[in-house]
User: What shape does this take?
Amino acid sequence: MSQAMMSSKSITTASGNKPHVLVVEDEQDLQDLLRYNLTREGMDVICADSGERALELARQKLPDLILLDLMLPGVDGLNVCRTLKNEAETSGIPVVMLTAKGEEADIVVGLELGADDYIPKPFSPRVLLARIKAVLRRAGEINPPSADGEDCINVGDVVIDRGRHEVRIEDDPIDLTATEFRLLNLLATRPGRVFTRQQIIEAIHGGLAAVTDRSVDVQMVALRRKLGDHGSNLETVRGVGYRFKE
Ligand code: CA
Assistant: This one.
């Protein structure tokens, strides 16, 4: 494959350095493929083929991102993720899970443990790189905008005005409940990121009210309807949760 066929320019971290990526994958062929593709995008790649080795390298090298296969010999990917997210030193490192068919339940657990994203196998190198770059980019955006009235998210013709707690489509305010507003705001803040129903419940109700998965689905239907043509930006990810289209 020629250089031109691979995606665009290389990416750097917020500090302007080459991103350091830890690849955790026990299948040698796949590990080689990942190393090859990430290295040619200008990333520094280190690899681990077990959960134990992954934990060791993560603590030692503090990479900018960890690409983590879930099915590993010994300590599995979910336990690696849980351990890293529980340690102060490593808890801020973005984790992208590599998942196999039928692992939807594990994906949900992983996202709730704090993983940032997941990539289902088999994947195309192009998709893989795009997802990794998106996660690195988000990780570099350390300071979210503050609530100062100027604080708006624009998504095409839709404006989410956090200062005024208002959503406008082509300048016309639309009538949302407080919960619908919080739901839309949560998802639109991180386009492409999948939120599980449990994460949505905790974020919009502070985990206080007794809200069920089903009520999240009901709110989502209502919100999509109110957004009209723009409702399709709210995507259902089967077996996992919801996301705002990237
Ligand atoms: Ca594996």
User: Anything to note?
Assistant: Residues 26-27, 69, 71-72 surround calcium ion (CB under 6 Å). The domain at 152-244 is CATH 1.10.10.10 (Arc Repressor Mutant, subunit A). Residues 34 and 180 are 40 Å apart (CA to CA).
